[in-house]
Amino acid sequence: MKHVFRIFAFLLFAQSALASHYLGGEITWRCFDSGPNAGKYKFYVILYRECGTGASTFLPNPVVLSTNAPGGSISCAQVGSATDVSPNCWDGTQEINCNGVTSGQGAVEERRYESGYITLSGVPPAGGWYFTFTDCCRPSITNLTSSSSSYTLRAYMFPYSINGVPQNANPCYDSSPRFLEPPKSVICSGYEYTYAHNAFDDDLDSVVYNWAYPQTSNNGTNASFTTGYAFNNPFPNGGNTVSFNQQTGAMTFNPSAGGSFASCVEVSAYRCNQKIASVYRDIPVIIRTDCGYNTPPTVQINNIPNFPALTPVVASGDTLYWETTVYAGQQVKFDLVSQDAQLLPNFLPQTIEFVPSGGQLGVPLNNPNSGCLNPPCATVNPKSPQTSFISTLNNEISFDWMTNCNHISYQNNSCGTPTNRYVFALRMQDNFCVAPAIRVASVVINVVSTIPVPPDLSQACVSQEPGGGLTVDWGTPLDTGMNFDAYVIFRGSSPTVPFVAIDTIYNYSTLSYTDLTPLSGANYYYLRTLGGCGYTSQTSDTVRLMEMSVTPIPPTNSSVAQLDWNAPYVGATPTYEIWRRPQGTGAAGWSMVSTTTNKTYNDTVNICGQDLEYQIRINGACNSTIDGGFFSDQNNTDVLKIDSVTVNGGTALISWTPGTNGDIVNYDILEWVPGTGWNSIATVPNTVSMPYPLPGATPGSSVKRYKVMSTDSCGNQSSDLLVAAHNNMLLTENMDPCEGIMRLRWNQYRGWAGGVKEYRVLADVTPPGGPTQIGVLLATKAPGDTAFNTRDLIGGWSYCYYIRAVDAAGQRFSSSNEVCINSLAVQRSRLLYLAKTSVRNDNAVELVTFIDKDADIIHFDLQRADRDGAPFTSLGLIPKPVSPPWEIRFKDFSADPANHRYLYRFVATDSCGGIDTASNIGTNILLEVEPADNLTNILSWNPYRDFMGGVLKYDIYRSIGEGAGMTFVGTTTDTIFTDNIRPTGDNVGIFCYKVVATEGPSLLNFTDYDGSVFTSVSNVACAEHKPRIFIPNSFSPSSLQVENRTWRPKQVYVESGSYKLEIMDRWGNIVFSTTNENTGWDGTIDGVKASEGSYIYQLNFRSKQGEPIEMRGTLLLLY
Q1: Is 472 a domain residue?
Q2: CA-based, 20 to 30 A from 952: which of 309, 564, 912, 938?
Q3: Same-domain check for residues 414 and 472
Q4: By residue range, what is the domain housing residue 750?
Q5: Do the domain assignments include residue 3?
Q6: Whether the Cβ atoms of residue 254 and residue 237 lie closer than 8 Å to each other
Q7: Which segments of 86-203 are extended strands (E)?
Q8: pLDDT single digits (tens) 225-241
Q9: pLDDT tens digit string along 146-169?
Q10: Can you tell me whether residue 1085 is helix, strand or coil?
């Protein structure tokens, strides 16, 4: 059986005959680690020769390897007979084999050689021990400059160090990588080709592939490549570089020329980042271009749910290989699916043959128990209902591998994380002639076992138990329990002495251990985790018992206990709890007195005299040793803080923060008395609730300062010098009803450490009949501003004012006394609105004004100005209405609105005789009209002011003749309007107009007495148009235009019955006369056509206004 799998060298077609019989080969070795020859090496040589008619059949036996290793050359004898490894195909008549073709067509014979067991003593040099075989000759090669040069096969063994110590090669410690895939001698052009040599390392060392130079002699002379080729680009690929994967050894290219092409691949083994072996495969590839069209089968990996997924590794759009990483103990399962729908020349489907290779595959392929390096082995089986590895159209294979710790590197070294990389070359090939097409799926499976992680002791501690034992606790490791076997407890008397394992805990959930027989003196502990595939974690942090000592200060009559202790582990920065109990009170007597992040603490004792014991804890646990002494309270160190002094309902109240001294009996409230100092005004028990009323305080009339101090059970009083004094705030007011101003003044609040942030001016406001609005904020004042003035007062309403001080943090407050008034302030007008100024038909100006019924007003002064900028003069005083409607309607008959634009306003006088407020300005609309020669009238007017809602529009009305009725002619938002009067015809020449302004929507929605929106009407203005006579200067009775056959004046605005027209010849004879303004002369005299020439006319009439008019002129009669 000839196996072809993933290759680093591709075999190419050569048109010329081969010059000699060598095609290449490789040298490898194996280290035997068991049996009678354990520690010895055996070397293996594989030679490939060209076969077929005309080829030499000679190959040496034995093969002698040259080396610089101790012991000299190594003889390798042939094992077994020669094997034909030429490609198979469907048609035996076309098949390439040693007996069926002439040499140079790609037929290949393989011979294998082995040495005896060999001992190599010593350490290889830095350049390694070489093992080479050289003979003549290399066949004719397309990509080399010399085709008859010698052939040299080579391998190198390099030094290896453990912890910096070079290892002696005796006993042996390494087997070289070996090639699992036979070479591919012949391929066809026309499709992309992928091949890998599939090297495997029995020691599971890391394997790396590289291109290498073919060599021609034993001294390491490199072969020379022809133009267009190189050692790292040896095949024709359409001008592109051959793709090469250093992890799997897969090379991919699309053959673009025929011939025989030399290539060499180096495979190096690495252990702990040290190169320890390099082997080389040097073999040509024949590319044939006469195969006909064929493409390889497709190959696809299908992941199976609930099993580790394989991920394609892609570069430039091509899948290089599939990869997954699993923990030892996980099962890997996936399906390999291949398809090929092409037909053979006999029209039968091509077969698809599955040919896998890999050092971890079982033998046979479905055997998980043997045949691989480390059972259990990976197995492959045809997927049901398929029963064979050969199938047509579709070939489906199931891959299955149950990994375990056997698949982790078994080399005894401490470098890195234990892992193993297994490469499987899963090849599908058809049976096309002369060379089958192949497709390979390279699968990389990394089997890993994480190094166990030690328990987390970052928050751990050692606690002393009542019985004398020591308990160590810890946190779970950061990884999961799948790599857990046990915790091992180690103990030592100091960090520098060797620690001894004292116990093993096999329960992953157990997180504490009690050492019932600790060492006398100090005890240090650390833990390790056992797990994974027999690995031990690094050591955890080292923890120790907190040993605490108490030093009484001073040595006699001690009132301070100085506590000192060590940290539970190096670098620990926890919050330590200070616990204390009276001696002899047992576990129930403990109480926590304070916390600290330091490793020392001074406890000022607040008990009159007692034996006390102390202990340090962390989060209520991690108990330290216990120590104590006799202490007695000698002073009271309380520094009391007053929260506030405030006033509520006329009572002064004080609040303070309770003292920190645990045995306070009562508090003394002190008041500052000028000339005397601080005097106690009350003794308050420590159970009193806050706030506390200040006895004898008069917060409505005086300002006083207060302090608080405490007294403990031993009669010690705290110092009042360290207490900030606080005072109440006294609010005063000053109110002038006629001025309408409330003036408030108060003193500053003092005592808060950060001072006052702001003062809030507040009031409880009650209108007549209620309800009261509580806490209305009137203003916020800065810390240095203690005055506030306001006019916002309503007569008859009640106001209770008070001030609230706020501290800098916004958390404490102090209120002043209340100042309450029933407002007698003059009520100012909230409304005085001149809603309308309009011209009446009788030319009086009408004004409508709305007033505030609640305002304290005596009368309103109506004032008028004759123009903008002119002073206002009083037209009279109008008393305030005493009943609804709350409005003033006034008509100004003294105005001349046809010739003047006036400005009106109302000014209110309050009950104190002062001016309360003035209304808005109101103006009449003054309309002016100018006649234009083009039979239009130009109207202009001033804008109306001031509607609250503004002017929505101006409507224009017109009458024809004076005194006639007005009709609507248009609307505008402008203050100019042009009226076209042509459509009115020959009518009177006088046109009169008025303009009406309409208010737009307003917030208060005031309306006129009839419910309509307010409007303002202008004066009536007229324009007169003079008579307009249009007289032709010639006519022709024979004109084609009918209107040109007679002659007559055309007039506008002529008084009916006053018209007379006479036409005379040059001698003064009347040739035509009429009194009908619509009758013209047709150019005849008594029915006879008049002579052509000039004539004289005389026209007499009266205008519409009765004015007599006479007109003379000449006209021309034409034919």
Answers
A1: yes
A2: 938
A3: no
A4: 731-822
A5: no
A6: yes
A7: 108-115, 129-135, 151-157, 161-162, 165-166, 178-179, 186-188, 193-195, 199-200
A8: 999 999 999 999 988 99
A9: 766 778 999 999 999 988 899 999
A10: strand
